Amino acid sequence: MRAERRNSGALARAKLAGMKVGKHSVIQILLTRIGRGRMDADNLAGSGKHVQDGICDALGIDDGSERVRFSYAQEIGVRWGVRVEIEVHGA
């Protein structure tokens, strides 16, 4: 779980490197879980907690901040994974 958080933070830093993120920017993040089966909404959000924390570490923002908004999706796939899409509004 620590590795997921650390790796997610490194990935987010790389994605954010080319984006302008101002002090008042709102960051919209879509986490898409890829797995062999589907989850209900509560478990889906919980399954991405370490990824979410790693991204917030990279942003230097608490995951409870109004500046960061997470949404979740899921896809069926042969291998487990997470796709992260980041949009910055109001740079």
Notable characteristics:
91 residues; alpha+beta; 3-stranded mixed β-sheet; 3 helices; 3 strands; 36% helix; globular
Topology:
Layout: H1 2-16, E1 26-35, H2 41-47, H3 49-59, E2 68-76, E3 81-89
Parallel strand pairs: 1-2
Antiparallel strand pairs: 1-3
Describe the structure.
The protein is α+β, with helices and mostly antiparallel strands and 91 residues long. Helices cover 36% and strands 31% of the residues. Helix 1 crosses helix 3. The longest helix has 15 residues.
Work out the strand percent: 25-35%
- Low-pLDDT runs of 5+ residues are none
Radius of gyration: 13 Å
| Overall geometric form | globular
Order of helices and strands: HEHHEE
In this structure, how is the largest beta sheet organized?
3 strands, mixed
Secondary structure category = alpha+beta
Count of DSSP strands:
3
Number of DSSP helical runs:
3
Q: Note the gap between the termini.
A: 31 Å
Strand order of the largest sheet: 2-1-3
Mean pLDDT: 90
Helix content: 25-40%
Concise synopsis of the structure shown:
The protein is built from 3 helices and 3 strands. The chain is an alpha+beta fold and 91 residues long. α1 packs across α3.
